[in-house]
Design a protein that fits this description.
By secondary structure, the protein is of the alpha/beta class. Helices cover 52% and strands 8% of the residues. It contains 22 helices and 8 strands. The chain has an 8-stranded parallel barrel, surrounded by 6 helices.
């Protein structure tokens, strides 16, 4: 029997997709020891947008989160999402930054690095691959799956071959928009396993279109070794398929059963069901199946951003036009996969084209940089007339973008000065200068008193509730203890909304 592995995404991509990445470390930690006993292949717990959000919105140190998670996962490998030369940020960083980041991530507890490039340009993966290998981590080389006239099984297989030659330890098919059809899943996995029979192949699908469960089953039958799922209370919609559903389905196939215990998974689901209620303010409301993604190909999170941009201008009714223009801009720019940061670049330009009424009359700096080759090589050449419109007489570069970047670590350490207590703080500053500086300043000024303030406010709220209860006993049915708990939850929501 070939046991199929499950990577659990609840504490990274699951809440990033459904709850705007707002889950706090304190809500993750109580579940980790039971998660460690379930028998997952790995637990995704870091990277993606979690690094930025931890400092910017939650006043948490992302490095401390990783250390605390690792302390509790004694048996199960940790896993993260790394954006190649972008690390966990939104631009290319110099090689010294990427090397230092990967080294420190391993030192703080990271085991498996899922490394991707938004344009599938393998040149942008070289430094991260080498850095992770040198630090002792596992390199999971990633194909960003998308659909276009130039994206085929052959082109993906060629990319996989390049990444294996670069030292990949495993391969991943990353389907961020839920576009991987069951037939394509079978064809692509079959090709990868035929070309690299000893290489572990993992599948990462979002449930947006309703394809993902079928794609997983076809992929597993074709030889996929690991599939990414989210516990049912953090699953579905723009998140991953439910862990329990896939475990139950595969249990009936003796050749591919996962071996995971549905009762233990049920307990875990109940825990996260309660946790999710605390983050109601951040629900995406993109629930259920959105079959429209099969035509417009825009991931759910990206649609939220487009709606937000249009709403600010009072033009929300123009969303259908923007979705159509988004497809046209993507074709103009060489069919980049719609994943961070290329999805934001294409989407923002599409909004501008629609609202101004003139295609590329106003061009963002990011669109110019993409056309210049500053993000890497696109899958198809950008049409000469579009290139001329965007760049004028400027010429795009033909080399690896990071070759033009001077080392950054020493300069950044001087800039942040003694606010940084160690190299991890310096790296946080390099990735997100303003949020990191604000966080480090907040931490220096005490940080901790915020919890004392919370306790004081909760105590005051409980006293007020008791007084109200004493004055109007006939309408008061809630015990004081429950009142305190509700007060704490209410204040917790206030903190999350800040």
């Amino acid at each position: 029997m070939t046991r199929v592995g499950i990577m659990e995404t609840a504490i990274r991509d699951g809440h990033q997709s459904l709850l705007a990445t707002r889950m706090r470390t304190e809500d993750m930690l109580p579940a980790l020891e039971r998660m460690d006993e379930i028998g997952y292949h790995s637990i995704e717990c870091w990277g993606g947008a979690t690094f930025d959000t931890a400092m910017r919105f939650l006043k948490e140190d992302p490095w401390e989160r990783l250390r605390e998670v690792k302390k509790r996962l004694k048996k199960t490998p940790t896993q993260m999402l790394l954006r190649g030369q972008n690390a966990v940020g939104y631009r290319h960083y110099a090689d010294d930054v990427v090397r230092a980041f990967c080294d420190r991530a391993v030192a703080n507890g990271m085991d498996i690095f899922r490394i991707f490039d938004a344009l599938n340009d393998t040149r942008n993966l070289e430094t991260a691959f080498d850095a992770v290998k040198r630090a002792g981590g596992h390199v999971q080389a990633t194909i960003c799956y998308t659909i276009s006239p130039v994206h085929t099984v052959d082109t993906y297989a060629k990319m996989a071959g390049e990444m294996v030659q670069m030292g990949a330890d495993s391969l991943c098919i990353k389907d961020m928009a839920g576009l991987l059809s069951p037939m394509m899943a079978r064809a692509l996995v079959t090709r990868l396993k035929n070309d690299h029979p000893r290489m572990l192949v993992q599948m990462h699908c979002h449930d947006t279109s309703g394809y993902s469960e079928m794609a997983y089953l076809m992929g597993v039958q074709a030889g996929a070794d690991v599939i990414d799922c989210a516990i049912s209370s953090i699953a579905g919609g723009t998140s991953q398929p439910a862990t329990e559903t896939l475990v139950a389905a595969l249990a009936e196939d003796p050749d591919h059963a996962t071996g995971l215990d549905l009762e233990k998974l049920g307990d875990l689901a109940a825990y996260f069901r309660d946790v999710r209620k605390r983050y109601w303010k951040f629900e995406s409301n993109l629930l259920g199946v959105d079959a429209g993604v099969l035509s417009h190909q825009v991931p759910g999170g990206m649609i939220s951003n487009l709606v937000g941009q249009l709403r600010e201008q009072g033009q929300e009714a123009k969303l259908p036009l923007v979705l159509k223009e988004n497809a046209a801009v993507r074709a103009d720019l060489g069919y980049p996969p719609l994943v961070t940061p290329s999805s934001q670049i294409v989407g923002t330009q599409a909004v501008l084209n629609v609202l101004t009424g003139k295609r590329y009359g106003t061009v963002t700096r990011e669109t110019k940089n993409l056309a210049r080759g500053m993000y890497g090589r696109t899958a198809a050449p950008i049409a000469p007339d579009v290139l001329k419109t965007i760049l004028g007489n400027d010429q795009p570069i033909g080399h690896r973008p990071a070759d033009d970047l001077a080392p950054e670590m020493e300069k950044s350490q001087e800039e942040i000065g003694d606010l940084a207590g160690n190299i991890d703080d310096v790296l946080s500053y390099v990735m997100f200068p303003q949020p990191a500086k604000e966080f480090l300043q907040w931490r220096r000024e005490g940080g901790g008193p915020e919890r004392e303030l919370v306790a004081a406010v909760v105590a005051a709220m409980v006293v007020r509730e008791k007084r109200t209860a004493a004055a109007t006993p006939a309408v008061t049915t809630e015990p004081a203890a429950n009142g305190a708990a509700n007060s704490w939850r209410s204040f917790g929501r206030m903190r999350q909304m800040r």
